[in-house]
Design a protein that fits this description.
By secondary structure, the chain is α/β, with parallel strands linked by helices. Helices cover about 25% and strands about 30% of the residues. β10 and β11 form a beta hairpin.
Length: about 190
Amino acid sequence: MTARVGILAIQGDVEAHARALARLGAEAVPVLREADLAGLAAVILPGGESTTIAKGIERQKLWEPLREFAASGRPLFGTCAGAILLAKQVERSPVPTLGLLDVVAVRNAYGTQVDSFATEVDGGAAPGLAGLRCVFIRAPQLRPTSGDVEVLARVDGRPVLVREGNLYAATFHPELTDDPRVHALVLKSALT
């Protein structure tokens, strides 16, 4: 049976996430309303502009359905702006969030659009993630506030991929490379 993975389709590179999921044999399902969450194995909150996405979540009345989805134990994975929307706290122009992940997200911590860059994770990444290439675009930084947050990868000593239970957050855009390992990690947790 093919895993069905939702992608919040308010803003962001939904198609790139869908291609990453397709490479893994999963079916991508756009999520724009509560009914779209039914039967999904996981949900991805893509990058984009966190204020715009938060307003869209409010407009579509998805705050509580997304919290309930996470409470069900199924994976919720935020990339870049999606990571901000998972955070319990936000610095630099705070936005409404789901308040689920024990981190402080610092918006645009790596600079503006022109400061975008790509690099590999530091040594010591979680098993299977060595050499992972990360694409940063106006990316946030995450500061874990609880020992329950597991840092899976760092760049320049800073956490860039974290997990807390069924919540995953990447400050970079794994969908913008051909490397499926981050999506595979989330998909694997959805299927176990």
